[in-house]
From TrEMBL:
This is Gnt-I system high-affinity gluconate transporter. The keyword Transmembrane applies. Keywords: Cell membrane, Membrane, Transmembrane, Transmembrane helix, Transport. The lineage of its organism: Bacteria, Pseudomonadati, Bacteroidota, Chitinophagia, Chitinophagales. It is a multi-pass membrane protein. NCBIfam families: gntP. The chain crosses the membrane at residues 24-41, 53-76, 96-129, 136-154, 174-193, 224-245, 257-274, 286-307, 327-357, 369-388, 408-432. The keyword DNA damage does not apply.
């Protein structure tokens, strides 16, 4: 019954946003209240669930999204984005620019949290799209698929790292197996699948459409790459130092994503602003425009967090996972399927993975399954079918300015390919190890 209620609430949400043309943030709040009442959460507890869901979701993303938008705006307006695009195109050529961005997304996706990687890569994707008039979804989706795969498969990302601990797996082996599984899944979900999306309509957020800048006014090549990639470099360096030198208060502070983004904004204000002859008044105007452009994206993500929390507080994810314990399915497949179903209902890959792990752990021991592959199996399932209750779905939709239908046909199908290809790769590995 609970599963039917969840399915009904998701259907209401889809109808409100598509047929009713309602603002997505308002629709999320209304459906969250409806779900809470229908699933038996006491009426006086529902507002707390809404507030907690919004706070937990936005608390970790607000400063990253806003500061990332500011950096992206300055990179675009200064001409640095054009300089980067020109350099990449000269190096790889128009024919291979998609692969260049994909490899970049995979490399930086290993140490970076998904939200940070998304915000960092979107300006570069859009600068290439606008500069060379290439299809936005065709160019951008493989890069974002790379970020998604590293987020779900590879430690030290939060969910895979937690799963390694829960299943008693080996971090190094899990990372090695994860890369072996991730590469073919990425190729299928990225370059291969995106070939069918060349003509998919998309009008990317104009935030990153830079004004016409004469070639003589472009920032230097080193300045452009260094400033745009500074967050990536700092986060990689601090992550490596934290692993090599052990936990250190100052290293943890310096490696915190919002702190890194704040430092990078200060640097960019000088390197791409003041040193290029811009006034602080002009730079501040860019930052204000960036905040205005992404405000609705933040609200929509907040709304999805409210719905996620209501469904989590109702206990529906635990009910679904418990019911599946009685199915006669190989444990690697069962772990994947459990995470996939919870992901479809809840929206959060992290919650789906951790909830599935708590239910599958005892079964894994009984079946003598490989714990490293178990981590990957649950991780692959947690990426399955991202749709309207997932913040990543709305980030892709709003940044690329797409319809719900086309977002489902592109983003959701891509995530499903990642999940299915990941499971097949895991089962193939299991046959040889």
């Amino acid at each position: 019954m609970s599963f039917l209620i969840v399915a009904g609430c998701l259907l209401v949400l889809i109808l409100l946003v598509t047929w009713g043309k309602m603002n997505a943030f308002i629709a999320f709040l209304l459906v969250s209240i409806l779900a809470g009442i229908s699933l038996g959460i006491p009426a006086d507890k529902i507002p707390g669930s809404l507030q907690k869901g919004i706070g937990d979701t936005i608390g970790g993303l607000l400063s990253i999204i806003m500061l990332g938008a500011m950096l992206g705006k300055l990179v675009a307006e200064s001409g640095a984005a054009r300089q980067i695009a020109n350099s990449l195109m000269k190096l790889f050529g128009t024919r291979y620019i998609q692969w260049a961005l994909l490899v970049a997304g995979f490399i930086i996706g290993i140490p970076l949290y998904y939200g940070v990687g998304f915000v960092l890569m979107v300006p570069l994707i859009f600068s290439v799209v606008y500069q060379y008039k290439l299809p936005a979804v065709y160019i951008g989706l493989p890069t974002l698929a790379a970020l998604s795969i590293t987020h779900g498969f590879l430690p030290p990302h939060p969910s895979p790292a937690a799963l390694v601990n829960q299943f008693g797996a080996d971090m190094g082996l899990t990372l090695l197996y994860g890369i072996l599984v991730a590469i073919p899944a990425l190729i299928l979900a990225g370059p291969v699948f995106s070939r069918f999306l060349r003509k998919m309509p998309s009008a990317p957020n104009a935030l990153y459409q830079q004004e016409e800048v004469r070639e003589t006014r472009l920032p230097g090549r080193f300045n452009s790459f260094f400033t745009a990639l500074l967050p990536v470099l700092l986060l990689i360096v601090t992550t490596l130092l934290n692993h090599l030198a052990g936990k250190n208060a100052w290293l943890s502070f310096a490696g915190d994503a919002p702190i890194v983004m704040l430092f990078c904004i200060v640097v960019a204000t000088y390197t791409l602003g003041i040193s290029q002859g811009r006034t602080m008044k002009e730079i501040t105007r860019f930052y204000s425009e960036a905040v205005n452009d992404v405000a609705m994206i933040v609200l929509i993500i907040a709304g999805s967090g409210a719905l996620k929390q209501v469904l989590s507080d109702s206990g529906v994810s635990g009910q679904i996972a418990a019911a599946m314990q009685h199915w006669h399915i190989p444990v690697l497949v069962l772990g994947w399927l459990t995470a996939a179903i919870i992901r479809a209902c809840i929206g959060s890959a992290t919650i789906a993975g951790l909830t599935a792990a708590s239910m599958i752990g005892p079964l894994m021991v009984q079946a003598h399954a490989n714990p490293n592959l178990m981590v990957l199996s649950v991780g692959a399932g947690s990426l399955m079918f991202s749709h309207v209750n997932d913040a990543g779905f709305w980030m892709f939709k709003e940044y690329f300015n797409m319809s719900i239908k086309n977002t489902l046909l592109s983003w959701s199908v891509m995530e499903t390919i990642v999940g299915v290809a990941g499971l097949l790769g895991i089962l193939l590995l299991n046959a040889f190890i």
